Structures are given as structure tokens and as C-alpha cells.
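Session log. Operator J.P. requested a structure for one protein chain; no other inputs attached. Running the standard single-chain path with C-alpha cell output.
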Amino acid sequence: MPLRWVYPEVYPVYMALTNRNLTTLPAGLHADSGVHGVRGLYLKVSPAGSRSWIGRTKIEGKTHKFGLGPLRETPLPLARDRWVRIRQRLFDGETPAQIRGKSDETHLFSYLAHAAYAARSARMKGSKKDQWLTSLESHMGALWHRPISELTTPVLMDHLAPLVRTKTETARKVVGRISIVFKQADALGITVPNPAPALRSALPWPKRSKDHHAAVDRADAPRVFQDILAKNTTASAILAVTILTGARAGTIRQLRPEWIKDGVIIAPPEAMKSDVAHHYPLTPVARAIVDHWASMGGDVVFPSRSGGPLSDMAILKLQKSIAPDTTVHGWRSVLTDYLRDEHHVGEDIIDATLAHSSRAARAAYARSTLSERRLLLLCKWEEFLQSTINL
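Structure written below.
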């Protein structure tokens, strides 16, 4: 057995530690030397191969050691940051015994994330409410149970960079939720810098596509719509009603029998992005689809196999199987262009049809004659889309 492992405190190995060599270093005590190293920080590698961080310092001639976590859960930037903070606390007068005391759980990121979720969950809708906390915990990984003061910008950048490269939009959501947790900490009197602004500017984000909601070509819209309707599945029924009404797919996925009255979908505030109830008049084809599925007696009109709403990914998968490189949301822009170009409809009527929350849309929506006008326009839209369909 090498002498340096028998007496690691006496014979540490001094070299620059990097993310590349941490997993290949031999058994021993490896000091974090080099330009970016932190004095007193060591990676301890056992003969069996386990790796953990320790910090060493002398106080009044006595050596004190602090465990800083296993390598598998503690990346190099986090170990450095943690040791720097301990040294600062020692410099400020805290004793080693005080520092080794149990951390206050109210300062843990996990505790504050639960507090942030509890404060916001009443305003969340659908799958977002179910996924907000579980997704954040999953992507935070080993940082989930760390004190929030340890989650500095360098630590989070090192942790999130791989996610940015592989799942960009998910990473954007995670950064947004991290920001909310830090704001919750501030509201509870825990003052820590919010790293979100720096993460949004410094992480290697790819450029966003200019056509974020890519749509089918209007000339090809009838063919695509007819192919969707011909699938005769739950997903195709949802997508067809979404297209014919100009609604958001999330609203139609959640559609419940009690929302349907006299050929109109009355979507409650919790089903709307704007948190305002909205009426969607049903065209003949849309009404036939909705009435058929509602007659089956489920809790939702278009149920999944489990009985709940179908996932948004199922709708998107169907859309892309028929019209690759397009999105479900893109149908709203096709409808907008159709109404504007073919029927010279004003922006207030278009916004009211699409349930936009502008002041002009709300004013137009309040007009008593608007419902009939909207239904007439949507029937023209339906005629354009289904000219060769035989119901």
C-alpha cells in the first residue's frame, strides 16, 4: 500500500484538480492546488475507489477536518465554494463545533422549493401543477437538499450546462423555477443573491428559432386537416376541435361535459391561460365531434386510457406525423391570417376569437352580437378546411 495513503495528512499529493482528472486519481489525499485551487481543500480517494471531499485547517496549532460530501454528489465548484464559506465562518469567529452542527432545514433548497410551490399551486393549471415540483427536484439532482446559500451562479452553471445542451426548453423552465425559489427565500427573510439573471445570460443557450410556432401553409391546411380527421382517434378529435374553434389545445384536452351548453363550450377561468372564462361557439363538425365523445359518459370528453385528459405530447405527435416541422399552436396563426385576409376581420374580433386578453378583445367580446359573428366566421373557416369531407 502506498505510504501516502497510510499517512495522507502527512504526504498529500499537490496538483491542479480538474473535472477531468477527479475520477482517475489514484488512492491518496489530493490537494486542490493550482491557479484556481482553494487552500486546505482535498479529494480523498480510498483504496476501494470511493472519493470524497474534506477541508483541513489549523486553529491554535490543532488540525480540524470537515467532511464536504462525496464526489458523486459534490462537483468541484460546489466543494470549493463550500470550503471557502466554512473558512469565512471560522474567520468570523464561529467554532468548528458550531459549524458542524445540524443545518437549519428551512434554509435548504428543497424546503424553500416546497414553500414556493405551496404559495403558487393555487394559480397553476393542468399538467404544470403536477410537474412543477417533481421536475425541479429531478433536474436539481444532488443540489436539491443543499442549503440555498451554496447554490451560487458558478455551481448552478456547472450543474445546468449539460441540460441546456440536451434539453434547452426544459433548462429554461428549470432556471425560471430556481428564480422563483430564490424569491421565496427572500420573502422568508433569507437574503441570498438570485442567480437566475446571470444564468439566463451566461449559460450556453442556443438561439431561439424565429418561427417559434411553425404553422402549416394555408394552401395545405385543408389536406392536413382532413388527414387529421381521418385518423379517428382521441388525439385527432381533440386536434380537430382545437383547429375548428381556435382554442388552445390545453383547453380542449381538459374539456368536461358540464362545460358544453347549447352548442357552446364555456371554458372556466382555471382552464384558460388568461384566467378569464371564455365561450367557444361550436361549428357543425366541431359540435358533432364533441357530442359524440361526450355521450360516452367520461369525466372528461376526450379521455386517455387512464380516464384523465390526454397528454399534450400525444397531440403534438399526431400533428408532426402528418405535418412535420409544424406545431399545434401554429393553427391559431393560420386561422388569424385566414380571417384577416379572406374576411377582412378586425384585430379586436380576432383577439376575441382566440381568447387573447387585450383590452380591445375584452371590449369586443362583451358585444351582444359578437357570438353570432364569431360562429359565422368559424363556419366559413370550417368550410375552407373540410370541403371534401363527407360526415
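Operator note: The domain at 218-386 is CATH 1.10.443.10 (hpI Integrase; Chain A).
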